Amino acid sequence: MIPDIIHKKRSGWTTAPNIGDYESARAEFSWAGARAALSGLPGGRGINIAHEAVDRHAGSERAGHLALRWLGKGGARRDFTYLELRDLTNRFANVLQGLGLAPGARVFVLAGRIPELYVTVLGALKHRSVSCALFSAFGPEPIHTRLEMGGADVLVTTTTLYKRKVADIRARLPQLKHVLLIADEAGGGAVPGTLDFSNLLNAASTQFEIGPTAAEDHALLHFTSGTTGKPKGAVHVHGAVVAHHSTGSLALDLHAGDVFWCTADPGWVTGTSYGIVSPLTHGVASIVDEADFDAERWYSILREERVSVWYTAPTAVRMMMKGGAAAARRYEFPDLRFIASVGEPLNPQAVMWGVEAFGLPIHDNWWQTETGGIMIANTPAFDIKPGSMGRPLPGITACIVEHLEAEGEPPRVRVIDTPDVEGELALKAGWPSMFRGYLNNEARYRKCFAGDLYLTGDLARVDADGYYWFVGRSDDVIKSAGHLIGPFEVESVLMEHPAVAEAGVIGKPDPVVGEVVKAFVSLKDGHAPDEALRMDILAHARKRLGAAVAPKEIAFLPVLPRTRSGKIMRRLLKARELGLPEGDTSTLEGGA
Ligand code: AMP
């Protein structure tokens, strides 16, 4: 039985939660106050994410405290104190300077969760370059698109990933000035046209002074997918660290003594905001696991590393649920205090499974690449309604809106005051980690706003108690295992296959990963829709896109439904796939 409410824990906390009372925390909160919890650069020279995350602690009594504990795939482990992390990131900032790069350069990293990735991101922030981590499971095509769109000056990657995914696209990236390779066992020896990451790092000084950094200086770039066209590069600024820090406190309840584990990859926004920045600004020990999901491994990390706050994702929770709560109960987790999850709907069963397996409910929260940090959350300050994303954090004003504009007009919306009515989730603009633009796409950025409201693209409702409930997305973007996948990117690669005439891609509901990518293709004349061809198209998609993005299923259709203006009607493909009503088909080519 799933209860409607899980009452908040009222006693037994060894450390009092950061929010005691929700209403008074909201009333008392101000972003200026949140900013005051950070130090800023010495001498009033502004605010820099890496200073708040690393140097602030390295210059304090926390210098020798564990900052990152890296757990390697093969059992290796490496610890980095705040002081060590300061020296390594100073070295990398000096490497960038030594390469003649000026602040504002674009520094990309394509690597698994290895220490060098963390040193690169933080060192680039110190140098005041713009830092972008790419998901290492991407294939060459998504990598190329992002390096090109992002105007990458520098790419840090491993020898293996370079040879597999970058070498063939490098000629198509004329602006890419430097490739720094992290040597790995499988990668072999030196590669012409590249530099050695470790050699450069070792030769660089550990002394670096971060230059003046304005709160509005660009710091982080994250790509996110849309329904049409190329991915969008959301730009974030150094001042975002105020929100990274305060949300870590309010939504994740971070305290200085915590051992925190965020399971997300820095190639996705959660893995940067909460896998790198937020825990370090709190001076906590942050666990980084290089390996992919494995339930037994995860239970043992939670226990052995004495994780006290754990931030994970619904797909992972559901994969653990498959093994049953008894698997978790074989372990004990005396240190685990708070569990949170993000990225996709957390079903009530998963919230309750937390109680069964760990004795703690899982606290769902909501945000997205554009918001830069957690916006709506189940905090320790109030009861959980399983299935709800929670309530807006202090400093955040959310509402549900309906659109009033006519087709083609700029957005115009009305706030829906009545509870429990579905509409688009909107947020009052102005929190520090809000994105400041989509790279080279001002028009698309503007379309995200109606007056002072940021329109999230998600459909939701709010109940009479102020709890938000996710309904769905208002676009065709697919969420698979917590990763946002743009159908257009997949369709474009499918269309490159010599047999494919047209392609339409949808998210097909899946009980574990939320949605799987399913493609519908029609074939050019002279090609038979047989199993061999299906496998060939699948293999082509996997090679070009990477397994995380490629379709899991391909179905052949004689023709795909299109609107009269020629757009593939993904909505109709989805309705037909799911046996749902086809809705309005008046714009269907040849339709009613
Ligand atoms: P991303 O920008 O990749 O982080 O994806 C953001 C999108 O993930 C949101 O716009 C939602 O569609 C979805 N999402 C994030 N958190 C939740 C949640 N707690 N419940 C439901 N959907 C979520």
Polypeptide structure, described:
By secondary structure, this protein is an alpha/beta fold. It has 2 domains: 34-462, Rossmann fold, CATH 3.40.50.12780; 476-578, 2-Layer Sandwich (GMP Synthetase, Chain A, domain 3). 29% of the residues lie in helices and 23% in strands. It has a 9-stranded mixed sheet. Strands 17, 18, 19, 21, 22 and 23 form a 6-stranded antiparallel sheet that branches. A 5-stranded parallel sheet has the order 4-3-5-6-7, with helices on both faces. Helix 3 (49-58) packs across helix 4. The longest helix is centred in the first third of the chain and has 17 residues, at 82-98. It is globular and about 70 Å long. The relative contact order is 0.10. Bound molecules: adenosine monophosphate. Adenosine monophosphate binds next to strand 14, strand 22 and strand 23.
List the helices and strands and how they pair.
Elements: H1 22-28, H2 31-36, H3 49-58, E1 66-71, E2 77-81, H4 82-98, E3 106-110, H5 115-127, E4 130-134, H6 140-149, E5 154-158, H7 159-166, E6 178-182, E7 195-196, H8 197-203, E8 218-224, E9 232-237, H9 241-250, E10 259-262, H10 269-281, E11 285-289, H11 295-304, E12 309-312, H12 314-322, H13 325-329, E13 338-342, H14 348-358, E14 362-366, E15 376-377, E16 391-392, E17 398-403, E18 413-415, E19 423-428, E20 437-438, H15 442-446, E21 449-450, E22 453-462, E23 468-473, E24 478-480, E25 483-485, H16 487-495, E26 500-510, E27 514-523, H17 531-545, E28 553-556, H18 570-578
Parallel strand pairs: 1-11, 3-4, 3-5, 5-6, 6-7, 10-11, 10-12, 12-13, 13-14, 27-28
Antiparallel strand pairs: 1-2, 8-9, 9-20, 14-15, 15-16, 17-18, 17-19, 19-22, 21-22, 22-23, 24-25, 26-27
Bound molecules: adenosine monophosphate.
Adenosine monophosphate (AMP) binds at residues 224, 268-269, 342-346, 364-366, 368-369, 389, 456, 458, 470, 473, 479, 484.
